Amino acid sequence: MAVYSEKVMDHFSNPRNVGEIESPDGVGTVGNPVCGDLMSFYIKVEGDRSADVKFKTFGCGAAIAVSSMVSEMAIGKTLDEAMKITNKDVADELGGLPSQKMHCSNLGAEALHAAIENYRERQSEKPSQEHVACPLCDEEMKELCPSCTGCGADLAVCPECGEVVEKYAQACAYCHASLESAKG
Ligand code: FES
Predict the structure, then answer these.
(1) Is 104 a catalytic residue?
(2) Are 71 and 77 in contact (CB under 8 A)?
(3) Structure confidence by residue, pLDDT tens digits, 123-156
(4) By alpha-carbon position, which residue is closest to atom 4 of ligand 1?
(5) CB-based burial of residue 82 (10 Å sphere; 0-12 exposed, 13-18 middle, 19+ buried)?
(6) CA–centroid distance, residue 86 to ligand 1 (Å)
(7) Closest CA to 135 of 116, 154, 117
(8) Is 35 among the catalytic positions?
């Protein structure tokens, strides 16, 4: 009986998403205490999804297959979904790992989770972004909401100058462009 499943051999022979992401949004590196091997994950985040995931693994063939599978499982998922990927999920997706190699699967999901946590830490450390102010009541919001959190006015962005404007105004109060196209 083959020791490794076909999927493990495939991901080991043709690992997906190997390498580093330039200017990643999060990086996580985890070491395997059993064998001393290392795995680093890099993620690029768009919205609340992991738009790209890459890895570098200094480890055995099983660890490389695990990294490759984790990267495939995580790409396109929301960060919350990616945080729920477990080591067991990865081993299952690979069609199982021999028991003496199960410890190698521990690195994968942990390194991914560390990268997501690193992204979240970076976000919380960022100086508060420019605020958006309601043109009617000057209420400050962290980002443009469909309606002002202060006075409830419907808001839109002027397609000409990018300023926040009242959605149903005839024209932008800043550049006087017609707002017909911003009404949606
Ligand atoms: Fe080190 Fe597999 S033997 S990760």
Answers:
(1) yes
(2) no
(3) 887 655 567 888 889 888 877 788 888 899 888 8
(4) 104
(5) buried
(6) 17
(7) 154
(8) yes
Q: Is the dihedral of CA 71, 76, 77, 78 positive or negative?
A: positive
Neighbours of 168 (CB within 10 A): 11
Q: Which residue has the tokens 């972004």?
A: 129
Q: Which domains, and CATH codes, for the chain?
A: 6-125 (3.90.1010.10), 128-184 (no CATH)
- Which residues does 69 contact at the CB level (< 8 Å), separation at least 6? 7, 11, 90, 93, 94, 108
Residue 102: its pLDDT value, please? 85
Amino acid at 142: K
What DSSP assignment string belongs to 73-122? HHTTSBHHHHHT--HHHHHHHTT---GGGHHHHHHHHHHHHHHHHHHHHH
- Residues 78-101: tens digit of each pLDDT: 999 999 999 999 999 999 999 888
Average pLDDT of the segment spanning 144-170 = 85
Quick one: tokens of 179?
A: 């707002």
- What pLDDT does residue 18 have? 97
